[in-house]
C-alpha cells in the first residue's frame, strides 16, 4: 500500500501533540510515514550544514547556539523514544513558516499536519498564525486543528469548493482518504447568483472529473463562506473539512480558508487551488 508521507512541525507544545495524536489515529486506517520537524527561528546570520556544524557571523556566541541546538535535539530524540523508532526526526534553522514549506516541498511530503492556537481580531490581521501562513503559501496540503481529536472517526468529510472552476484540482490526498477510509463525502457550495440546479450540475461534473463516485450535494444561503461552513457543521457535524485556498491572504485580502483555520475547532485540510 502506498504511504502517505506526513510532516508534523513541532515546537514541543500541546498543539503539536494534538497534531500527532490525530495523525497517529488516522494511521491506524491507512499507511502513513510520520516525520517530526523542529525549526529553530534564529537570525539569518546563523546557519547549520548537513553535518550539524554551526556557523555564525561572529557577533553571536557560537557556543550558545550550539547549546540551544543540543537542547532541541534532545527534545526530538525524546519524541522518537516516546512514539517509536519508526518516527523520523529533523532539525532545521530558519524562518519558521518558510522553512516548513521548503522542507515539505523538497522532500515531497503529501501532508503537513499542524496544531494551532487560532487567532482573532488585530492579531489575526497583523500576524496571523504560523499554521495560517503555511497554509497560505504551501503547495503541500495542510491539516490544521486546535484541540484534541484523539476520538475522531472519519465518517463524514466535507469538501467546500466553487465547483464551476474548470481547472482540474490536485486532489490526490483527498482521493486516497476517500479510498482508504470510505467516509460519506459531502460537497458544499454557497449559493450566490447561480441556481441550485446549475450548482448541482457543476458538482456532478466536478465529481466525475476527480473520480469521486458518490457524494451528497449541499447548497447553503449565507453571508460568506466562513459563516456558511460553520453553520453547516453545526447542523451536520462533519469530521474533517476540506477547502481550497488561492494563497492570497494578508492584511488587505480576507481569505475564508485562513479564517476557518483560525476560528474553527474542527480539523481542516487546506489545499492550493490551481
What's the number of structural domains? 2
Number of strands: 12
Classify the beta-strand content into a percent band: 15-25%
Looking at CATH, which topology of the largest domain would you report? Rossmann fold
What is the C-level CATH assignment of the largest domain? Alpha Beta
CATH superfamily of the largest domain: HUPs
Radius of gyration: 20 Å
What summary fits the major beta sheet? 10 strands, mixed
Biggest β-sheet: strands ordered side by side in the sheet: 5-2-1-6-7-12-11-8-9-10
Q: Calculate the terminal CA-CA distance, rounded to whole Å.
A: 28 Å
On the 0 to 100 scale, the average pLDDT is 86
Spans of at least 5 consecutive residues whose pLDDT stays below 50 are 119-128, 250-254
What spatial form do the alpha-carbon principal axes imply? elongated
Assign a percent range to the helix content: 25-40%
Class computed from helices, strands and strand pairing = alpha/beta
The count of helical stretches stands at 9
- Series of H and E elements: EHEEEHEHEHHEEHEHEHEHE
Question: What does this entry show, briefly?
Answer:
The chain is α/β, with parallel strands linked by helices and 274 residues long. The chain is built from nine helices and twelve strands. It is elongated, with a radius of gyration of 20 Å.
Amino acid at each position: 500500500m502506498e504511504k502517505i508521507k506526513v510532516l508534523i512541525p513541532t515546537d514541543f507544545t500541546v498543539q503539536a501533540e494534538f497534531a500527532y495524536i490525530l495523525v497517529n489515529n488516522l494511521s491506524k486506517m491507512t499507511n502513513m510515514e510520520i516525520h517530526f520537524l523542529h525549526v529553530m527561528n534564529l537570525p539569518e546570520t546563523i546557519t547549520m550544514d548537513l553535518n550539524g556544524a554551526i556557523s555564525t557571523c561572529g557577533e553571536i556566541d557560537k557556543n550558545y547556539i550550539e547549546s540551544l541546538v543540543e537542547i532541541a535535539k534532545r527534545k526530538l530524540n525524546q519524541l522518537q523514544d516516546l512514539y517509536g523508532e519508526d518516527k523520523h526526526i529533523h532539525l532545521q534553522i530558519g524562518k519558521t513558516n518558510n522553512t516548513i514549506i521548503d522542507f515539505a516541498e523538497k522532500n515531497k511530503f503529501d501532508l503537513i499536519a499542524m496544531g494551532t492556537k487560532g487567532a482573532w481580531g488585530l492579531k489575526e490581521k497583523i500576524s496571523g498564525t504560523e499554521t495560517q501562513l503555511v497554509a497560505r503559501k504551501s503547495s503541500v496540503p495542510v491539516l490544521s486543528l486546535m484541540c484534541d481529536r484523539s476520538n475522531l472517526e472519519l465518517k463524514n468529510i466535507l469538501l467546500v469548493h466553487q465547483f464551476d472552476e474548470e481547472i482540474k484540482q490536485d486532489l490526490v490526498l483527498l482521493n486516497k482518504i476517500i479510498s482508504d477510509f470510505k467516509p460519506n463525502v459531502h460537497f458544499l457550495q454557497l449559493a450566490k447568483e447561480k441556481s441550485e440546479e446549475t450548482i448541482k450540475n457543476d458538482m456532478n461534473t466536478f465529481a466525475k472529473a476527480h473520480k469521486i463516485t458518490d457524494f451528497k450535494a449541499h447548497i447553503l444561503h449565507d453571508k460568506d463562506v466562513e459563516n456558511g461552513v460553520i453553520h453547516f457543521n453545526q447542523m451536520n457535524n462533519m469530521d474533517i473539512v476540506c477547502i481550497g485556498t488561492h494563497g492570497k491572504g494578508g492584511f488587505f485580502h480576507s481569505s475564508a480558508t485562513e479564517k476557518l483555520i483560525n476560528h474553527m475547532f474542527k480539523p481542516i485540510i487546506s489545499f492550493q487551488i490551481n
